[in-house]
Amino acid sequence: METGMGTGYRRYVTSLALAFAVIWGALAIDPLDRSDWALENVLVIGFCAGLAASWRHFRFSRLSYTLIFVFLCLHAIGAHYTYAKVPYDAWWQALAGRSFNSLWGWERNNFDRVVHFSYGLLLAYPIREVFLRVADARGFWGYFLPLEFTLATSAMFELFEWIAAEVFGGDLGVAYLGTQGDVWDAHKDMALAACGAVVAMIATAAVNRWLQRDFSREWSDSLRVKDPRPYGEEEIARMIRQGQD
């Protein structure tokens, strides 16, 4: 019988990698704004290199790799058109005969908002895998920490956007920020990422509550104080005494 890391697993992950390479390569041809496309893909290239480098020591589940693949494809579309100009409304109108924005009462191009929500929705579970398997997070912390990490990295990305816009300025800075005149754009992007992560973690908790017999006990144990001793200056004093022994 084939194991989780057997031939089928490798074939599946390789297929996802090849599919993304084809999609990314196709969308790299004649993007709407080549400079913005290059800037948008700096983090993607670094992220993919990190995934490849971690292959020997840490391999995600098929589910996590699939979620990562979907998110990267959405980002590749945004990078090709620039996020503020993805013609999803025109695509929907050609398909359904009416404006998609009009269905929801939107007045702006909201593709960027969808992707920020998808960042939390699609990547919170892979992040949870890291916390479970590396940090040994359990119970409450196995759901809370992925949410916190999602929100923290969303904030870091907004800072990265701000710095890039300040450095490059001009039309490139405006295209990369994609605020479309909304002064609260960064706040809304972070909130949507957090909402996506909340949905993902609630769904994960619901499945685990159904399948995991010790679910409640694990949550209770995760919130129990493991070491009643105070740290800070007390811990420093203990380490000094240990060093002197």
From TrEMBL:
Where do transmembrane segments lie in this chain?
Answer: 38-56, 63-83, 190-211
Q: Name the UniProt key words of this record, in alphabetical order.
A: Membrane, Transmembrane, Transmembrane helix
Q: Which domain of life is it from?
A: Bacteria
Pfam families to which the protein is assigned, alphabetical:
DUF2238 (PF09997)
Name the record gives this protein: DUF2238 domain-containing protein
Organism annotation: Pigmentiphaga daeguensis
